[in-house]
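Lab notebook, bench 4. Still working through the backlog of constructs that have no structural model yet. Next entry is a single chain of 643 residues. Request: give me the structure tokens for it.
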Amino acid sequence: MARGGPSCLRKSSIVDGRIVRDTRERDKWRVTNTSPGCCGSPSGESSGECRAGSTWPRLVETPLETEMTALAAGLPAGLTGWPSFAPNDLQLADLELLLSGALKPLTGFMSDADATSVARHGCLADGRPFPCPVTLVVPAGVVPPDASMLVLEDPESAPLAVLEITERTQAGPGEPVRLAGPVRALREPEHGPFRRLRLSPAQTRAELGATGHGPSDTAPANAAPRDPTLPDTAPPDMVPAETAPRGPVLACLTRTPLHRRELGQLRHLAGGMHARLLLMPLVAGPADLVARPAALVRAVLACLPQLPADTLVVPVPLAPRGQAGTRAEILARALVAASYGATHLFVPEPVPGGPATPALPALPTLPATDAAIRDMASTGATITGLAGSPVSLVMPGEWAFDLAAEVWRPTARIGPAAQRSGLSPADLTGLLERGEEIPDWFTPAPVAHELRAALPARRDRGLVLFFTGLSGAGKSTVARDVADALAERGDRAVSLLDGDQVRRLLSAGLTFSRADRDLNIARIGFVAAEIARHGGVAICAPIAPYAAARAQVREMVRQTGDFLLVYVSTPLEACEARDRKGLYAKARTGAITGFTGISDPYEEPDDADLVIDTSVLTRQDAVTKVLDLLAAGGWLPREGARR
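Model written out:
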């Protein structure tokens, strides 16, 4: 829904040039002037709008007032009158990369012509290579038809940037709208785990250039990554100095923790190339295995003792652009790696469907480099280019664990009988779910510790047990009995979120429209996910008639714990025969409208983990089936095997 401006500026009065929130009255903001001539009198209130050309002040904390982060100088005076929108996490990630310059030559969200050209041909409309569309889609009605500016907010409704709307694309009335145009930063993002490590591309390039790597203070011009905004014919002296590290930089962009195989490959390749390592955990979107980006960063930091001392770790908010290892994902990573100063990109597996091109940039001429490259080639490692990539790709070749030497090495140097492959993702997940030790030959102990913290054994992991079914199906009865059984056992901390109870407390005031029903389920899902985040068991028993709402909860919970869907499939006839509350009778006479199963649909789940019909099962049998599901999956120790 369009708003009159970002929430932090609503109801603002201009008193001195500082925007602060009065903690004594929520959602009211006062602005005091710290510089004469800005926003009216130094000591009095003004009309609430800065004069053209005035300087937007830095925000500071005062007693009884909540600190607001400083806005960039020159903030547009019309900000309070512009509509605002809070992008989702992946959209915020794109915005941060755009504002930092990591997606050059883009300066904003793509036009329809650019997005279409990139999707079809892998290049912008003007022919410059670009790996993936970068667009902003908002719900219909967020932006008024006559609006030319849109304030983009963070999750706390503080303004981050302004989008100048140059184009709108909409498939039809009521459909989402794709907006295009340049973006302008209002302030630096300041929240999120490991923010101190999230250097900008310019800061990273400066760090790489300042500390360097290798025996020479000056790297040849062809060792510097090319700025995508420069023409292909730009001479070396046109490459900005801060983009040129002192030697090769091998970047590893990853969504999964690094284990001994990858660590050995990185050491081997970096040593042979005389390159500095740049580890870039990707913190936008779910991380593989550990799920949460913060856990991925911890796992990457845990492996640093296994790598050269000058290895640099810079988390980067690059959202997924395809499955890992696909050409689209690799090209997106290559673009970002180049922006951060990398000259080469570590690619564990061969690129599918990508014709090789000459490697660019080349390795500098250093002592023993030729011999090192020959040695790398003898182990199956290759350095190659890829059409559309601004950096060369480095592929390590086949590696295995050498049972005789007890070390990971290229398979070319291990006899067939002494080779051992690594654990598959399924094998590793199974060990973690069962609470078993991860072998040291596979991953270092500090990394294993972080994996166990991020993915505890199922018996200790948060769980949401979500019952769905018609009114009168028996959801609440079975859910309460299961909660009682768990409380009696004492294995797990349990919270019960029954549908009727939630309606009275958490969702008081909501109607039974589809929008409000979805909001009710989203609220239940949010609370349940927080319970799971802290290792508890949340048992939910709403009707939840719509598949999309249930899927949203499942996705929400999977970021913090496990989710099990129990469909109580008791037929409508049996539910209506029970009708303890008389609701079906009222629905049949029209006294109640929009009643699920009578005048509103129930979408039967096809993804349930358990289906029970209380019209053919006794109450105890239904509870037993649920407890058996928990025990079989490892979320609950079986009787006799309790700790």
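Notes after review: Residues 1-74, 212-242, 360-368 have pLDDT under 50 and may be disordered. The chain has four domains: 82-185, 195-229+241-398, 400-454, 458-633. Flag for follow-up if needed.
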